[in-house]
Every structure is written in structure tokens, then in C-alpha cells.
TrEMBL record:
<protein>
    <recommendedName>
        <fullName>Autophagy-related protein</fullName>
    </recommendedName>
</protein>
<dbReference type="GO" id="GO:0000421">
    <property type="term" value="C:autophagosome membrane"/>
</dbReference>
<keyword id="KW-0072">Autophagy</keyword>
<dbReference type="InterPro" id="IPR004241">
    <property type="entry name" value="Atg8-like"/>
</dbReference>
<keyword id="KW-0968">Cytoplasmic vesicle</keyword>
<keyword id="KW-0472">Membrane</keyword>
<dbReference type="InterPro" id="IPR029071">
    <property type="entry name" value="Ubiquitin-like_domsf"/>
</dbReference>
<dbReference type="Pfam" id="PF02991">
    <property type="entry name" value="ATG8"/>
</dbReference>
<dbReference type="GO" id="GO:0006914">
    <property type="term" value="P:autophagy"/>
</dbReference>
<keyword id="KW-0449">Lipoprotein</keyword>
<feature type="lipid moiety-binding region" description="Phosphatidylserine amidated glycine; alternate">
    <location>
        <position position="125"/>
    </location>
</feature>
<comment type="similarity">
    <text>Belongs to the ATG8 family.</text>
</comment>
<dbReference type="GO" id="GO:0031410">
    <property type="term" value="C:cytoplasmic vesicle"/>
</dbReference>
Length: 127
């Protein structure tokens, strides 16, 4: 897994960069790493009570499962095991067994990035 770009901030990636900038960046990345999937991971906009991920931009092999990507996200935001992590693409939860390359082909943005959001839910009665 390759990480690229700057650290995370509260401003969404789409708000930080124009469509043309995102498209140009994604095209450059895909030319350099044609076997990788460019992903932007961001906290759900309405959830300031959960940690920001330390890096927003990821390049992952397309052959990994969605569950593998969720494990990476969980590790990067450093949440405790009793917290439930929900990861969305276009507002939908994706089956954990699906390959990232399939999700990318079905859901990538016009700029070329796959945009992923996450949210936490307390489970097991914890607060």
C-alpha cells in the first residue's frame, strides 16, 4: 500500500482542489502506478466527534478486498476495538468480500479517484 499527498484536514478534498486539479493529479498517479487504485478517505462531514484519519490519499492494489482496506482505515484512525467502523462509498456500505478494483470500476468519481467516507458507532454499550 502506498500513501501519497499531505496530511488530513477538516476541509474535504473536493473543496480543497478543483475538478481539473483532481483529474490532473489522478491521471498522473494512474500513469505512474497503473496497477493501483487511487482512493481518498475522509471522515463523514457531520461527525466531528470521531478522529480524523492521518492521511487522506491512498494507492492500493485492486486485488485486495474491501475488508482489507477497512482494516487499514481502522488502524490509521487508531480506534478502539469496541467502536464500530462504517465505511461508505457514495453513501452506501459495500460488501466486505468485494474486491477494491470492482468497487472502483462501479463507483469512481469522474476525476478518477474513489471517494470513501467513514463514521464510527459505539457498540457493546460503550460511550
Amino acid at each position: 500500500m502506498v500513501f501519497f499527498g499531505s496530511q488530513s484536514s477538516d476541509i474535504s478534498y473536493k473543496d480543497q482542489r478543483s475538478f481539473e486539479e483532481r483529474k490532473k493529479e489522478c491521471d498522473r498517479i494512474l500513469q505512474k502506478y497503473p496497477d493501483r487504485i487511487p482512493i481518498i478517505v475522509e471522515r463523514s462531514s457531520n461527525r466531528n466527534d470521531i478522529p480524523q484519519i492521518d492521511k487522506k490519499k491512498y494507492l492500493v492494489p485492486g486485488e485486495i478486498t474491501w475488508a482489507n482496506l477497512i482494516a487499514v482505515i481502522r488502524k490509521r484512525i487508531r480506534i478502539t476495538p469496541e467502536k464500530g467502523l462504517y465505511v461508505f462509498v457514495n453513501g452506501q456500505i459495500v460488501p466486505h468480500s468485494q474486491l477494491v478494483c470492482q468497487i472502483y470500476q462501479e463507483n469512481k468519481n469522474e476525476c478518477g479517484f474513489l471517494f470513501v467516507t467513514y463514521s464510527l458507532e459505539n457498540t457493546f454499550g460503550s460511550t
